[in-house]
Amino acid sequence: MPLTKQPHDQYVTIMGKRWHLRYCQVIEPDCDRPDLPRKQIRIPMRLQRTPKKLMDYLIHEALHAADWNQAEYWTHHTAQDITNLLWAQGFRLSKE
To answer: Hey, which of 8, 12, 41, 45 has its CA 20 to 30 A from 18?
Structure first.
């Protein structure tokens, strides 16, 4: 079940709030607090070359956006578990 598009900047809605998902020259992925205007989720461009790690970081940062007050331990392990589930089911990025 490949995804149909390569990663790209876009606007996403998480828990009713709008985020600008950006691929940029950052060292580590990060997510702005949900109460900020013009909030962003920033993903390092280098992760586009490692699809499973990209999936993990996208899920991780989306979990932060959904529940900012959740502990980092919970966010980290939940993102890994969801990534492993989706990966085992065959979800991949495609060249299309």
So the answer is: 45
Q: What are the residues whose beta carbons fall under 8 Å from the beta carbon of 5, sequence distance 6 or more? A: 94, 96
5 found inside a domain: no
Q: Is residue 65 part of a domain?
A: yes
Q: How far apart are CA 9 and CA 19, in angstroms?
A: 11
Q: Which amino acid is at 75?
A: T
AA identity, residue 44: P
Domain encompassing residue 17: 10-88
Question: Would you say residue 3 lies in a domain?
Answer: no
